[in-house]
Amino acid sequence: MAGLSTVLKLGPLLDLFTLERHTWGVSEVAEALSMPRSSAHALLISLVEIGLLQTRGRGRYSIGWRVLELGEVLRSRTDLRTLSAQVLEDLVREHGETTHLAVMDRKTVLYVDKVRGTHNIVVQGARIGSRLEPHCTAVGKVLMANIDRSRVVEHYANRELQRYTSTTITDLPSLLAELDEVKKSGVAFDRGEQLEEIHCVAVPVRDEMGAVVAALSISVPVNRFAVRQADLIQAARGAATEIQRRITHALDQPADAVSGTPDVRELRPIQPRS
After folding, report:
1. Which residues lie below 8 Å from residue 9, measured CB to CB, with a gap of 6+?
2. Is the CATH code 3.30.450.40 the one for domain 79-267?
3. Does domain 2-68 have CATH number 1.10.10.10?
4. Tens of pLDDT along 204-222?
């Protein structure tokens, strides 16, 4: 059981490494995780030995190259970003609004792709690789609506639903009621719940079996949202259907044909992603 206890500590340690803070020292890790310095040092060294972390100057640690290798393994298996890239770009080209692709990862929303809008005034949106709490985002509501309700209740049972704006849902019964509606309608909204000036619409992205594997959203400045809402819902649903078609088609191809296909980003100029 001692080995299992050690493994369970590795996740929170790796979670410390973010886009905003990508290097940590032993004492900082010990303080952040409320553990002895010797234990933090032992965990860090273990992760260095298997390549998930690397040592930097002056006793600092950062993510190791093994993570990139594992990411490539995941990409070659699911290839969700590559299969979705052209669809997201076409969506922005036609409608001019910022578009995101997100997944649920360890109970938070992880943004895996983004194409910035082309209007004079656009939503900058979440950065690729950033995480947000799901209750205040349209993509988060889509993803939560398509998992077992007990997992949602368990996640929020002993924690506060943080308020970001005056419209943020902050009580569990209201959130569950909204998730029921999202499940029925297949569309979720963020009406200024994370940032007051931004409204979003999101829909599920499904795999070849119909399981929800991601959520696609369109983010719009509040003054453009109401008049465009119906069109944006239709556009998002069409894009999600096209991604599902591409996933199904890719799985029908021989493995060597799929793995040998270059990333579509290498074939043409695209909108800057950030």
Report:
1. 33, 35, 39, 43
2. yes
3. yes
4. 999 888 889 899 999 999 8
